[in-house]
Amino acid sequence: xxxxxICIHTTNEAVEPISNILHETGASGVVIExxxxxxxxxxxxxxxxxxxxxxxxxxxxxxxxAYLPINSFLGETVDQIKQAINNLILYDIDIGLNNVTLSExxxxxxxxAWKKYYKPVKISKxxxxxxxxxxxxxxxxxxxIIELDPGMAFGTGTHPTTVLSIQALEQYLNKxxxxxxxxxxxxxxxxxxxxxGADQVFAYDLDDIAVKSTKINAKLNKIDKQIVxxxxxxxxxxxxxxxxxxxNILAEIIVRFVEDAWNNLKEGGLFITSGIIQAKKQLVVKxxxxxxxxxxxxxxxxxxxxxxxxxPVLTP
Length: 316
Hints:
By secondary structure, this protein is of the alpha/beta class. Helix content is about 25%, strand content about 30%. The protein folds into two domains: about 1-115, Alpha-Beta Plaits (2-Layer Sandwich), CATH 3.30.70.2170; about 120-310, 3-Layer(aba) Sandwich (Rossmann fold), CATH 3.40.50.150. It has a seven-stranded mixed β-sheet with strand order 10-9-8-11-12-14-13, sandwiched between helices. Strands 2-3-1-4 form a four-stranded antiparallel β-sheet. Strands 5-6-7 form a three-stranded mixed β-sheet, with helices on one face. It is globular, with a radius of gyration of 19 Å. The protein starts with a strand and ends in a 6-residue tail after the last strand. About 40% of the residues are buried.
């Protein structure tokens, strides 16, 4: 089969929503080429080989690439993608140059092209994420290994927003906690929660592909009995109470369900949010505080922000 590589020249702010648009329209594989990757200092004691060429990266902005099957619907699909990206402006998301280009890729080239970006990465004190096709030997006895198969539709679990979320879970999650993961994607936060000691996780995502991916990755890590996965719009009609709610999605989406998060948290419970760009940090903070949350911690990585908020314990 032949594939068409679609490349969108955009901004860091637009990477997450554009990636979501691409996999919702049937893209098989998403690659993000950010020139900041060329400047990162990388640990190589896991045996990773980073062979990055500056010729593959834009001078400014970010390339988001995805792979679409070449068929009679390709033109219509590309038009849908372009329209959906243009609509992001309505949500005050900067889409940058928004240059869209297409090129043909043969299946055997595509199958290895996206995997080369995915190597074992230690993302917190305890957790290392590895792809299913990589061999890896833990370097310490307390190291927690998460195996992921991104299914060519989700990130590798190493994006700053995911790293910030997992680092917060590692710091604040208590053994035996009940966790709700809103917008589970590949299921990496649900899996991390269980491996860090959560008793049960309820993972929700509106996208059926995400639901399937979460189930596959939970089973891959042999913890599928502890993760209940369901297709659901945010926290709509969710009645259960949790010790921790974690959500790594756009700031504009987070503020829509802050009240629901409050209602679904036990007293003293934590709401861990990520996927927030610097420019939208105060938007989320103000919404959280307006609903009664206390901001415990704000962490930043590159241009991304995560917020840990607490539902206070009511005094009699």
